[in-house]
Amino acid sequence: MEFVGIGVLSWITFLPIIGMILILFIPKENQKAMKWTAVAATFLQLVLAVMIYFHFNKGSLGINTQEGMQFVEKMSWIDIRGVPWFGRIHVDYFLGIDGLSVPMVILTALISFIAVFASWKIPKALKGYMAMLLLLDTGMMGVFVSLDFFLFYVFWEVMLLPMYFLIGIWGGPRREYAAIKFFLYTLLGSVLILLAMIALYFSVTVPDGATGERMYTFNMLAMMNPANFQPGTLLAGVGTYWRHLAYIALFIGFAIKVPIFPFHTWLPDAHVEAPTAISVILAGVLLKMGTYGLLRISYPMFPELANYYSWALALVAVINIIYGALCAMAQQDFKKLIAYSSISHMGIVLLGMAALNTQGMIGAVFQMFNHGTITAMLFLIVGVIYDRAHTRDIDAFGGLAITMPKYTGIMTVAFFAALGLPGLSGFLSEAFSFLGAFQTHRVLTIVATLGIVLTAAYMLWTLQRVFLGQPNEKWASLPDINGRELFTLVPLAVIVLVLGICPSLLLDLMTSSLNHLVEVVRAGAVL
Amino acid sequence: MFSYTPLIVLFPLLGFLVLGLFGSRIKNEKLLGILGSGTVGLSFLVAVTLFVQMLGMHPEERKHVVDLFTWISAFTGTSSSLSVSVAYQVDQLSILMTLIVTGVGFLIHVYSIGYMHGDPGFWRFFAYLNLFIFAMLNLVLADNFVLMFLGWEGVGLCSYLLIGFWHDRKFEVGGYKPGTSTTSDAAKKAFIVNRIGDFGFLLAMFLIFVNFGSLNFDAVFGRASVVSEGNSAMVWIGLLLFLGATGKSAQIPLFVWLPDAMAGPTPVSALIHAATMVTAGVYMVARCSVLYALAPTALHVMAIVGALTAIMAATIALVQNDIKKVLAYSTVSQLGYMFLAMGVAAFSAGIFHVLTHAFFKALLFLGSGAVIHAMHDEQDIQKMGGLKHQLPTTYKTFLIGAIAIAGIPPFAGFFSKDEILWRAFSSEYGSIGLWAIGVIGAALTAFYMFRLVSLTFEGEKRYGQDLHPHEAPKTMTIPLIILAVLSIVGGFVGIPASLFGGNSIEQWLEPIFAPAYEKLRMEPHPVEITEYLLMLLSVCVAGAGIYCARVVYLRRSKLADSWKAKYPGTYRFLFNKYYVDEMYDTVIVAPTVKVSEGFLWKGIDVKVIDGIVNGSAKLVGMLADVIRRVQTGIAQQYATIFVGGILLLLIWLIVQ
Fold first, then answer.
1. A432 and B76: CB-CB below 8 Å?
2. Closest-CA residue in chain A for B164?
3. In the 8-state DSSP scheme, what is residue B472?
4. DSSP letters for B319-346
5. N or C, which end of chain A has less CB nearby within 10 Å?
6. What is the pLDDT of residues B128-142, one digit of tens each?
7. How far apart are CA A219 and CA B466, in angstroms?
8. How far apart are CA A98 and CA A144, in angstroms?
9. Which residue range(s) make up the domain with B452?
10. In angstroms, rounded to a whole number, what is the distance separating the alpha carbons of residues A279 and A383?
11. Which residues from B are below 8 Å from A501, CB to CB?
12. Rounded to the nearest 10 degrees, what angle do helices B474-489 and B92-115 cross at?
């Protein structure tokens, strides 16, 4: 699929940048134009995502075969010969998606579009804000469509900067602390990923298409083929010391994004300080990059270690689930509570991944998508109440069900989706993850399943304290949810409901690729 | 005809959607009431037609599955593919449950029109009730575990929404920590406690999938017939499913939510927390009878838990003063009987009791609702008395319900309870101990029920002069009368052979349980003299219970108080429900909350991890502080160091 000679994936990635450039030319006073430009850019992006959805070939495998990738765009980007120490540096502009990335592409487009509407009331420096938001959008989308590690890394870093500013400038009272904490944590992760990337680069060679000479490459698909590892290089072989080291470095790099215990403490701070829309993006999309990176890079490039460490992953998954849920239970701050619930729910993704079977893998990726929509709803819900009352103290409220019935209705959907009520999407992905993991890590899964009790406990306790009981007179005059806010929440609620009843609308896209991923990883299990 | 099955489920769903989306705009209560109860009525009609047709069929043709669409499919190309449909299975068991749910449900909907009159949430109430019926029908008609679980959780959600229906009200009478409990506490507790059961249900499903490669009833039960005996996985499946059942059906150790659930409006207590939802666990065990046949250990556990629950709840019911609480503990106790039946492999006896219990317990709850309605929301029986003159219809119907539950022939409860007791005694899986507990429980049942009747309707009035109780409107009394009739004749479907009946319900259900009986090698029992003796004994015991209650609470009303004074410890122990709530609170809830906040969050997260993070940041800062001192910006200093360096270099060159 091409438009004006440019592939759809380039469009979907760089549309926000076009929007950003346009916004930079809009005079400061004309806020309306800025907002609508951002809406237009993200809307077009969403339209493209929908087109991709309908044109996506559900049968193709992807993962480690270029033929299985769809909407591929590949051209030489950087090609310098004779660089001291490096020799020839070759980087491709290589985009393509498969069943693993397509749910994330759709999610990113959807959440970005919604985030623009959630940013309608940004009080200061709107121009900079919108520009940053769109830049962030490009970075996220780029990560999910890149098949060249170098390109992937560039997008990964592109994302970091706007996020730092969005929290640091437009955030709450402790925004600077939160922004720096976020920045340092992720920077550490980036450095580790960079190291692993360079190590991989110097281990993998492919023949040049024209001359046939062997050259180093950043091509991810090439890195997934053990035959391409040059004997004698750092990461050649199977299960070597260096490969363990590289795997762990990559793991920590991605773990910080997920976030996995004990690398998670940036998340509650970042969420609490970030403006609503940024929390929505952070929880809705950014966290998924960690698990996406593990699935896209760590798993197929180090299959023997993915097998070897699967029990450890299951263990941290269980810690995430239980620890996150218990910490959520202890919170007074509504937003912090949702942040910890994210940690708990991302644990389910990890557990599904650790299962190394189809059910678990499908559960994991499906949960990535569902967590994106459900948690986005939860943060939007917190935003609604914070905009009105300027506090997020759970105990300050009560009885909102009486004063804000519509708001309560939509909240109920989100809360029950979050606690995994069957009929809503969250249940299916959780059940798949647990079912998958149950077959490989039985005891850990049993412990993890206890999480459903804890989740119900903190979710309903929160619901009770905020929405039920006698209405607090202080908030008696709060207006119910308005049209714009409903516009952000209702589509998500509909998706949660529809996917709960017809999960195949999404599952069909990813089943073939994830089956293949499982096969690739299992085939590499030699230890 | 079977193709109309989905309509049964569809009508309440439509009702919910219409009421939920447009209900707030419909101001006419009558219209809302007709909409709300009409949908359930239609479902009931379809179910009845279906049932009548099934009666004319050969037993083997009575089962039919209607597959609507594939709900979940995770195709792997290997044996571990998972495919789950939204498919409804009609057979002898599910049609029976459907009839109970829609029939009793319809009556309670009609009753609610009167009971909820004038409530601002009238439309919402009916929307929730319709959603409940929809979920419950999914539970009983599902042809696989996942859809059943959808219904299972769905009824839990409705229960949550309806217990907390008046969430802005205090819920004082007899609640845990009286005065502080609210209806929303009760709702939350119900859902969370049930979630513990769901934990078991989920794990059981996983185990079933791992062992049978499917979650479809037919496939699982079919493959179960070739499972070898003594497979320990089967015991786990049985026990975990039973854990699920103890949640939904309020058995030890998860019964604590049900008495609190009485915070909901009374029709809810009748429909959800007595007649239908709480029997879901019994239904589930019955549905999985084949699996239980492979795990006799699980059956033993179930029988013991059921018997203990039956007697424990009965003792608590002896001393409660809230009319609905007495009935709630009575429900817990009766559910215990049902599990006792299941545990001794008397599956059809258990389902029989589900049926009769639905009639008389719905009747009793609705009757108590009429009393509460008349007394302006007073629920304390100590402040009632003599109401039979003011509420004649309510009194008569309530009395019928009480006789039925006490087990006096020929009322409905007699047949089902006696069947259970006889099986507890005679079955290969029963024992004299289980039977004895059941008989003592029966005596207690008769006693506490007639204590309730005596204190509420008879004797002198103990309420204020300003109260003028009056009989409920027709929409409320007609359901009472219908249920009263059913409580009288409902037992006739199960008259045992010893009383020259055909026990038609047992025969009707025979094809469902036959595979299980076969596995358990159960032989049909010939009629014995013992059966008559035990029957006579249980009737005498029930009669004695009734007599004692009337003596203590009507003729010698000082007696109860003197006992209370004589055994204050026992009284307090029973009145406070064995302190189970308090125990859970101190052992589980409070420590969890404390550890979460004090240790995990404020300790590990804030102190340890953030301590390390911020600490390393500080360390870098301190290092930088040292290094930074080199760069003072004073040119003279730089020059001095510069010259010093050259000098050192020169010396080194010379020395070398």
1. no
2. A468
3. P
4. T--BHHHHHHHHHHHHHHHHHHHHHTT-
5. C
6. 999 999 999 999 999
7. 87
8. 10
9. 163-574
10. 9
11. 71
12. 150
